Amino acid sequence: MTYVHGYDTRENERLEDQAGTLVDLLHSDTAYPPGSTVLEVGCGVGAQTLTLARRSPDAGFTSIDVSAASIAEARQKIDGTGLTNVEFQQADIFALPFDAESFDHVFVCFVLEHLSRPLQALAILKGVLRPGGTITVIEGDHGSAYFYPDSSAAQAAIDCLVELQRRAGGNALIGRQVFPLLVEAGFEAVRVSPRMVYVDSSRPELVDGFTRKTFTAMVEGIREPAIAAGLTDPERFDAGVRDLYRTTERDGVFCYTFFKGVARK
Amino acid sequence: MTYVHGYDTRENERLEDQAGTLVDLLHSDTAYPPGSTVLEVGCGVGAQTLTLARRSPDAGFTSIDVSAASIAEARQKIDGTGLTNVEFQQADIFALPFDAESFDHVFVCFVLEHLSRPLQALAILKGVLRPGGTITVIEGDHGSAYFYPDSSAAQAAIDCLVELQRRAGGNALIGRQVFPLLVEAGFEAVRVSPRMVYVDSSRPELVDGFTRKTFTAMVEGIREPAIAAGLTDPERFDAGVRDLYRTTERDGVFCYTFFKGVARK
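^ Those are the sequences you sent over. The predicted structure of the assembly is below.
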């Protein structure tokens, strides 16, 4: 798997900004009972891990990621907080080193979008989940982005990101598929709720934290690969990014939606 | 102004289905104090009027529409309920028969999308609103529609509706502009909240009431004018409608967002 956003420092800062802005919207209704065991899949640099572990201080988390470098950084981040309820482990979602039905809950955030076989991944996760346990899946959907002023150049820049992710085997439009994927994987009581981020200039913290530093920064981050892949040219791509920044002005509006699904085995 | 959806019986049924399904999502946070006077602009056949008058039984509503036929139907609808706090009047938003600053509140729902000069309309409404009074604006945005399975034919059918509305002088993408329009019209304390309709098969009442009977019925309703205008051909349009219905199956998902703005003079 190629992680389309790369692993450099700026990307890590972007993930932290994103996590900071969106924590309440995405995670405020996730808490695990004392003593329960939770597998966090694809923890990356630990942006969500920190939130999870703080919100459920008496649950035990096992957080895995395929990247050793990300695991090292996540471990460092948690070590600095005094939290003791997280164990990190480098592991591949398609080759999990855990016994069947060994976790009470599974948590998967911003992971399925990068997988070419998300349904198979869910089936594997179902295997390590005990009967009656829950799975939580959170994904974005880049097709949910629209804005004012509208701009075909900005849409084209976003489309570059969608296409790069597709070529890397992923699916940047997977948010709308969280429901059918969980149903198809055989989970019960599937309930999906959209988490829409609505940004206008009356919400300056979102203008900065989401439109600028999360979404537009993410699009900017694929400038070189998009040009190298022949999906765009510098002039058109930069015009699209400028138009995304244009939506952060006083009369601008930006909309994006995440989808959170919770289901039971 | 040409009302793009027409005035026939089926359209009226569609508006009633729509109002029934969406009442809580759109209106549950709208209530006016006893004794206050409210101007409802573009009441149509009274779908929203009924909800407004029931939720604020001690406020007095003046509900206007440019169509005498719609006013007659709205009056009949309210007469059947025993509500006595609504007066209907045929009137044009651009030639209001009211004194300056004569209403405590103004309510405008699904109206600005049909006007070629929405900003001027807001300025006129500001004129009849007393200082300190509120305006509430609710609009949809057809650019907020996305679904699973995705379909270019379905998107093209929706685009026909957007284009017809544009040619009729309106703007089917106006929802995202509620904030900038209210700010530009000089209102204070503008606060816009999105009202997203998320539909999957775990919510059968929305599958039927929204995806089928509201949104897809609306798109189907412009089949003849869209073909007559050369925007599509029967085969392609019908394929798009079929694909919209496809989203109502067990694994389908449909998303649409309304925008509700409240501001003060």
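DSSP finds nine helices and seven strands in chain A. The interface with chain B takes residues 141, 143-144, 146-148, 150, 173, 176-177, 179-180, 183-184, 190-194, 196, 198, 200-202, 250-253, 255, 257 of chain A (CB under 8 Å).

Shout if you want it in another format.
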